[in-house]
């Protein structure tokens, strides 16, 4: 720890500058305490010697902490965006929807929606220095969408942490002379267990490889459950792994950041999953940037790296699948699996055939852990930052609030580590962030580009980086991206298919619970809009004007100066 006296006029070289700071008292002697970096962000505190005050901005609030180094922010965003979806979701969707043909809609949507929306979230978070809900001081009636994305991130955390706990379980199992998913002579194996290459007498319907039975019968114990209405108790092995994951997340977060037609729908959803748009994470991370940070460059770099990683993962995955198809002399569609089956069945089985398989297995599951932990931290940070920025009294109790969030997540995640936990996992995966995330991003785009105004938003970006966004970005924000997202939301409702796990079909009540989960996040938008309109002072003549005008411009409404009530506001690009 470094401790020294310095005049307040020199503070800008140590503490990250805000857009404006209050300095009505003139130069004062201050006591500067520079605390070591934690999680890549520098913490500083200052005390005025005479009089003793904490450095504040123009609104009287404490200075917001910032990333210690630019690379910390970039690595955090890339770490969140490049996640397990790159490893198991993109390659399977590519195979399922025509291979190279899938890249056409994927790249098209990346250009017209993915990158513009990614840039938009980084910019709005950096300019307003708030989380997913707090940024909507630019258009108060839309604050509900902030709570929508916070809820989506929370729901995803309920099951995403379970994937990491599976990877941890496999990692522990890999420290053995022989990997446990190589043979069929284990206590958990069924009579149907057989290597494809060694047995042609068993029907394809019932045939199961050692790796498949290890995942479903040794790890999940799904054979002890008859369905989602027969969950059983949490299994202590997976519960222990889940607890380790939760502890890691807590100590990483408690101090803050310093420490066919259907082909097109799936491509659109993959863009949101892959880039992380609509989870509030990009807004939360960028809110800790310095005001003058070049968010345009960050958007291009991180989105490009994410897409290249997806392509590279696809090459690796298809190499694995081709190898396994050749090894077992079966068609490729007998090998290709979606989601957990690809990562926890096909990959381990392929690794088991390599010399020194235990070493390679350890390396592979460590990679899965790092991919998963980065993304889980991002999702949890979105929830914590969004709520703490909205409810200011939580700032002083960040450690306790973080503990509350991670413990609550752990308790709900226990449903996913029971004997029938895979059914709960599948239900959450299907409903938590499908249509709802497309809806959330649609409302974000409408609120920023239309109600706040794409011209005003462009002015904000120019104020930060000294360069106004080009016509391409402005057209995408105002017309192309919202139209695309609206179309995708409508089609996703119209083409809904209920979830299933293998041959198991979920009962109607389970699908109803799933829909309630999805709708609960989407209803935050209309509910908050109604709440905002009803709670505005009744003596105000222009309730709608106050609800759609940035809070910093409310004083103009009494003079009849409401930008949103002019035709120019809606037509300008």
UniProtKB/TrEMBL annotation:
Q: Name one GO molecular function term.
A: metal ion binding
Where do the TM regions start and end? Answer: 73-91, 103-124, 145-172, 236-253, 265-288, 300-323, 335-354, 360-388, 400-425, 431-454, 475-496, 508-531
- Is Mitochondrion one of the keywords UniProt gives this record? no
Alphabetical GO CC annotations of the entry are: plasma membrane
Amino-acid positions noted as binding Na(+) in the UniProt annotation, renumbered to this chain: 79, 81-82, 86, 274, 306, 371, 374-375
Q: How does this protein sit in the membrane?
A: Multi-pass membrane protein
Report the record's disulfide bonds: 184-193
Swiss-Prot/TrEMBL GO biological process terms: amino acid transport; sodium ion transmembrane transport
Main subcellular location of this protein, as a coarse class: membrane
What keywords does the record list, in alphabetical order? Disulfide bond, Membrane, Metal-binding, Sodium, Symport, Transmembrane, Transmembrane helix, Transport
Q: In which compartments does the protein localize?
A: Membrane
The reply on keyword Transmembrane helix is yes
Region annotated Disordered, chain positions: 1-24
Annotated family: Belongs to the sodium:neurotransmitter symporter (SNF) (TC 2.A.22) family.
The name of this protein is: Transporter
Q: Which organism is it from?
A: Anabas testudineus
Q: Mind giving the lineage of the organism this protein is from?
A: Eukaryota, Metazoa, Chordata, Craniata, Vertebrata
């Amino acid at each position: 720890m470094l401790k020294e006296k310095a005049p307040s006029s020199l503070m800008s070289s140590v503490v990250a500058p805000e857009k404006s700071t209050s300095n009505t008292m003139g130069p004062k002697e201050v006591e500067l305490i520079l605390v070591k970096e934690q999680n890549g962000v520098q913490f500083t505190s200052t005390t005025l010697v005479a009089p003793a005050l904490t450095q504040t901005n123009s609104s009287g609030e404490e200075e917001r902490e910032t990333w210690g180094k630019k690379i910390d922010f970039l690595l955090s965003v890339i770490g969140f965006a490049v996640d397990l979806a790159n490893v198991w979701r993109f390659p399977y969707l590519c195979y399922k929807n025509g291979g190279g043909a899938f890249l056409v809609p994927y790249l098209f949507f990346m250009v017209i929606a993915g990158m513009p929306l990614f840039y938009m979230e980084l910019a709005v978070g950096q300019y307003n220095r708030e989380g997913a809900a707090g940024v909507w001081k630019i258009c108060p009636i839309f604050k509900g969408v902030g709570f929508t994305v916070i809820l989506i991130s929370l729901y995803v955390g309920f099951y995403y942490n379970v994937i990491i706990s599976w990877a941890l379980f496999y990692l522990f199992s890999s420290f053995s002379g022989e990997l446990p998913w190589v043979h069929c002579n284990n206590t958990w194996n069924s009579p149907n267990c057989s290597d494809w290459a060694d047995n042609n007498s068993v029907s394809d319907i019932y045939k199961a490889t050692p790796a498949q039975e290890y995942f479903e019968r040794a790890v999940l114990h799904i054979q002890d459950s008859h369905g989602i209405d027969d969950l059983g108790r949490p299994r202590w092995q997976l519960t222990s792994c889940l607890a380790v994951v939760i502890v890691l997340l807590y100590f990483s977060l408690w101090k803050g950041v310093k420490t066919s037609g259907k082909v097109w729908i799936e491509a659109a959803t993959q863009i949101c999953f892959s880039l992380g748009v609509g989870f509030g994470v990009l807004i939360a991370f960028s809110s800790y940037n310095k005001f003058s940070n070049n968010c345009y460059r960050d958007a291009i770099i991180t989105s490009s790296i994410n897409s290249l990683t997806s392509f590279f993962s696809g090459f690796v995955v298809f190499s694995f699948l081709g190898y396994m198809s050749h090894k077992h002399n079966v068609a490729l569609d007998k090998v290709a699996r979606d989601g957990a089956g690809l990562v926890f069945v096909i990959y381990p089985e392929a690794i088991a055939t390599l010399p020194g398989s235990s070493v390679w297995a350890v390396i592979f599951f460590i990679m899965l852990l790092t991919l998963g932990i980065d993304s889980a931290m991002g999702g949890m940070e979105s929830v914590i930052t969004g709520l703490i920025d909205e409810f200011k009294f939580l700032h002083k109790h960040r450690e306790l609030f973080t503990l509350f969030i991670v413990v609550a997540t752990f308790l709900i995640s226990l449903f996913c580590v029971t004997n029938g936990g895979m059914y709960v996992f599948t239900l959450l995966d299907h409903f938590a962030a499908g249509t709802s995330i497309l809806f959330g991003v649609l409302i974000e785009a409408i609120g920023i580009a239309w109600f706040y105004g794409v011209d005003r938003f462009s002015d904000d970006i120019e104020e930060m980086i000294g360069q106004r966004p080009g016509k391409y970005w402005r057209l995408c924000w105002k017309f192309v991206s919202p139209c695309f997202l609206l179309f995708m939301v409508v089609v996703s409702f119209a083409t809904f298919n209920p979830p299933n796990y293998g041959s198991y079909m979920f009962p109607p009540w389970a699908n109803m619970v799933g829909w309630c989960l999805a709708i609960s996040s989407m209803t935050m938008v209309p509910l908050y809009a109604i709440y905002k309109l009803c709670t505005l002072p009744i003596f105000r003549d222009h309730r709608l004007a106050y609800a759609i005008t940035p809070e910093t411009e409310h004083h103009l409404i009494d003079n009849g100066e409401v930008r949103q009530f002019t035709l120019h506001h809606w037509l300008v690009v």
